[in-house]
Amino acid sequence: MSRDAANGPTWLQPADVLDHQSSAGHAAAEPPLHEPPVRHGNNRRRALAGIAAALVVLAAVVVAGHAVAPAATATDFSAKSLAPSLGLGGAPAHPFGTDWMGRDMLARTLAGLSTSVFVGLLAAVCSSVIALVLGAVAALGGRAADAVVSWFIDLVMGIPHIVLLILVSYALGRGFWGVTVAVALTHWPSLARVLRAEILQLRRRPYLELSRALGVSRVRVAFDHMLPAVLPQLLVGLVLMFPHAILHEASITFLGFGLSPDEPAIGVILSEAMRYLSAGSWWLAVFPGLALLLVVLAFDRLGALLRRLVDARSVQE
Predict the structure, then answer these.
(1) CA 17 vs CA 5, 6, 9, 13, 14: distances in Å
(2) Phi, psi angle pair for 139, to nearest 5°
(3) Which pTM value belongs to this model?
(4) Quick check: 264 and 249 in contact, CB under 8 A?
């Protein structure tokens, strides 16, 4: 007996039964709702490509700066204060122009960027190590250590940044090492707070509580479990510290408390260019300033891509 015959004629069946049968038929034809939507593209691959491109650009700047270092200090008074030119019509090629001593500004800019990147790299690495050590001490050393480290972080962040930079650099005799140490000693507080919070969250994980219950030392727990867990945050913080370190190195050098005038640094170039802007030599400040801005933006982009790469949720967006 057919289903219609068992239930009676269709026109005698209740309306809710007919609606249920109709909806069941449509539901069988529709695809299940729990299937994940199809995602187009590969965000992780794009992030890796962007990171690789930024690293290539920054490496090219550093290598070019070291390669043209002799040309950056070569003087030619017969070609002084020349406007930017591409060498068309037999004229000498100076894309960034020359300064009042005939030095090629493109070579000086590349050499200055190379110096700034090296100072920023060294200072950021040292500052990241300080942040990691203090963050670990605050999170693992008990309430007293946490209170002391937190007070020290608040103290450093409470002092105006540029004032602290100038004081430390001047006390250490300025120059390369004075600037590097000053930047390294003043850029760790924000990263230390982030790492402290991450380690405090890790302490509550069951496997760490089990390790402590089994008598594993705090040092071994820190190196075997906590350091690999906070390494992505440490790496991202280190890269994001680069642009700040480079800008602050250029700032205090521009003010006369950083690198010496005989070193090809962006701060030195911009400081010297201020005396010649009124004479119409605009290229002495414009091109080095734009080059510094592009390098800082490249570092910032690199840090943003690294942060997206270590964040699983943002990679899937």
Answers:
(1) 15, 14, 12, 7, 5
(2) -85, -30
(3) 0.72
(4) no
